[in-house]
Amino acid sequence: MSETLISRVMRIVSGNIHDSMDAIETHEAEAVMREALREIERTVSDIKTEARVANGNRLLAKKRQEMTDKKLSELTDKARIAIGENRDDLAEAALSRQLDLEAQLPILKKAEESAEKTTEELEGFMSALTGRKSEMEAELESFIEMRNAPAFNIDGVEPANENKLSSRTDEAIEAFDRALKASNASVGYTGTDQKTAAQIGEIDQIIRKNRISERLAALKLEDK
Known about the structure:
Blueprint: H1 3-13, H2 29-84, H3 88-148, H4 159-170, H5 194-222
């Protein structure tokens, strides 16, 4: 969910304009309140769009995992066939591909969980905004009734009622503009020279070959 959209939701749900109310003329309050309601509707629409995207990403990640699991099973079968034909080189190629695919599974799983979490958060925001909209509609109706009352003065309100009107109005207008800041911390190794990096890469290759050999030996034992 984008920071801009989060900020919009926070402004609406936490709206408070005690400081801004002095700058709003009484006869303009209804227009401002109606614009606040339209802002909620626009924000809900944007959230629904992001929720559909997030859910689509979740389904895609889940589908990719299923396809990867199927491919892993197929590679095992192919490795067995290669062993039966005394083609250890082909079996090793199939097992090598397995290692590559298995490395993708945690990433796909994390992507699915992240998309699911985002979807849940967006649904929570929509619920909060829907509740806020209902409150604001009731406040607008109450404001209109007060404005149309015979004792209501369009040029101003009596001191005794001013705070009451201000309290009702500022509940319906967004004035809270706090953006949530997300920081991404990156951690990496520094100072590793080229020779050392090459040596570490060589160790990784040895480990990979050993894993392939272990799988090949295990498959051969299963077929005995």
